[in-house]
Design a protein that fits this description.
The protein has about 140 residues and is of the alpha+beta class. The chain has 4 helices and 5 strands; from the N terminus they run βββαβαβαα.
């Protein structure tokens, strides 16, 4: 059982783990032992995830989610299979936990009048500085 929050937990039967050979450190052990973990979780068919959470999860997961709604995570940072397994499960839990919180509603704002005037003042001063650096001559348009 993977606990995500107080009211959401994912059953182990919903998560499929397969072990593959890992790249990276490990010496000769890399060629003999399958330490990397490829975790698959079908979020579209999961009863513990609501439709709204699934839609946010689709945006957050990006290319880690397949077209049919399965999240695929590969963990190979550690040399042991158990640590990679725990890492993949923790990453899945963090991904779903991020999708649980709905995004804050953005209230559109406009800059104040004084902020606009200050911005225009700065642009005018910068233009004056650049104007004084010009060479005087025929190409200036004077």
């Amino acid at each position: 059982m993977l606990e995500i929050s107080d009211h959401i937990s994912i059953d182990d039967a919903e998560i499929t783990e397969s072990f593959i050979r890992s790249s990276g450190p490990g010496g000769q052990n890399v060629n003999k032992v399958e330490t990397a973990v490829q975790l698959r979780f079908n979020a579209a068919a999961s009863p513990s995830i609501s439709q709204a959470v699934f839609e946010r999860l689709k945006l957050i997961a990006g290319r880690r989610m397949t077209a049919d709604g399965t999240i695929v995570l590969t963990a190979q940072n550690h040399r042991s299979q158990d640590r990679n397994r725990k890492d993949a499960r923790a990453r899945l839990a963090a991904l779903i936990a991020r999708a649980l919180t709905p995004p804050k509603h953005r209230r559109p704002t406009r800059p104040s009048r004084s902020a606009r005037l200050k911005r225009m003042d700065g642009k005018k001063k910068r233009g004056q500085v650049k104007k004084t650096r010009r060479k005087s001559g025929f190409g200036d348009g004077y």
